[in-house]
Design goal:
Helices cover 25% and strands 40% of the residues. The strands form three sheets. An eight-stranded antiparallel sheet has the order 3-4-7-8-12-11-10-9. Strands 6-5-13 form a three-stranded mixed sheet. The longest helix is centred in the first third of the chain and has 19 residues, at 2-20. Mean pLDDT is 81; it is low at 1-15 and 162-167. It has helices spanning 2-20, 85-99, 142-145, 150-155; strands spanning 21-22, 25-26, 37-43, 46-51, 54-58, 61-62, 65-71, 74-81, 103-107, 112-119, 122-129, 135-141, 172-175. It has 177 residues and is an alpha+beta fold.
């Protein structure tokens, strides 16, 4: 019984990490509260920011881009462009362990597979193009993302604003999750 309690509490603690925010930022937090963020695009009430001083990695490889979405100056989403199918495989296993089996759908005549998880106020969506070239992860804070037009929130920023990683020696590296 003690092992079950410890296992359950560790699972709950890990899953609760995304409930409060992502990468040290609180869901609903204001963009101005995070001075390292740089605005990369704005579209109406939605602004997109990147942290050019941080490079995140998964499975020992850097991810291509991490963009944070703010709706009416409140953090509502993180959009992550992954670099490899190996990262997608790792994250699919990670989220399935944390949140249970994914809801899986195929779109565009099976050229893309989408994995979805939901937990309280957070929605996670992993999109994998069957060629393995286009792999995106979106994490949404539902109270704000549902207020925003759902289609607009889930489309996320275009690839044209994906930041290139800085070669500056002040750049820090951290695990994605």
């Amino acid at each position: 019984a003690l092992i079950w309690i410890l296992t359950f509490s560790l699972h709950s603690a890990n899953a609760a990490v995304l409930q409060s925010g992502i990468h040290g930022m609180t869901w609903g937090g204001h963009a101005g509260s995070y001075p390292r963020l740089e605005k990369v695009r704005e579209a109406g009430d939605v602004s997109y920011y990147a942290d050019r001083e941080m490079v995140y990695h998964a499975v020992g490889q850097p991810v291509s881009a991490v963009i944070y979405g703010f709706y009416r100056d409140q953090l509502f989403a993180a959009y992550i462009k992954l670099s490899s199918p190996n990262q997608a495989y790792y994250l699919e296993k990670h989220f399935s362990t944390e949140y249970g089996p994914a809801k899986v759908t195929a779109v565009d005549s099976s050229t893309q597979t989408i994995y979805r998880w939901e937990d309280e106020k957070v929605k996670i969506k992993l999109k994998i193009n069957d060629t393995g070239e286009e792999i995106k992860l979106g994490i949404y804070y539902q109270p704000l993302s549902t207020e925003l037009n759902q289609t607009q929130a889930e489309d996320g920023p275009s690839d044209e604003i994906a930041p290139s990683s800085s070669k500056d020696k002040t750049t820090k590296s951290a695990p994605l999750f």
